[in-house]
Amino acid sequence: MFQNIEADLHMSASVSLLATLPGIVLAVACMVYDTLCDFISPRYMIQWGVGALIVSSVAGFFFSGNF
């Protein structure tokens, strides 16, 4: 797949491989999520994910002075 991107966008091979990595990561994440949905409620996972996002955002806001 990355060879087609390389040809269409006139990139080097290493750059086109980096352009396809987010798609590969997304595909793996979707497969993991699909597998987890068989064992854990999707609503439960979303609640924990949103909770983790809120906690990390608040922590990032308060500790941004150390950045």
Spell out the key features of this protein.
flat, 81% helix, mainly alpha
Please write out the topology.
Layout: H1 2-9, H2 13-37, H3 42-62
Order of helices and strands: HHH
Strand content: under 5%
Number of continuous helical runs: 3
Ends distance: 38 Å
Rg, alpha carbons: 18 Å
Contiguous uncertain segments of 5+ residues: none
Helix percentage: over 70%
Q: What integer is the average pLDDT? A: 83
Global outline? flat
Strands, count: 0
Any idea how many domains? 1
Strand pairing plus helix content: what structural class? mainly alpha
The main pleated sheet reads as: none
Characterization of this structure:
With 67 residues, the chain is mainly α. The chain has helices at 2-9, 13-37, 42-62. It has one domain (2-66). It has 3 helices and no strands. The radius of gyration is 18 Å and the shape is flat.
Q: What's this entry about, in short?
A:
With 67 residues, the protein is an all-alpha fold. 81% of the residues lie in helices and 0% in strands.
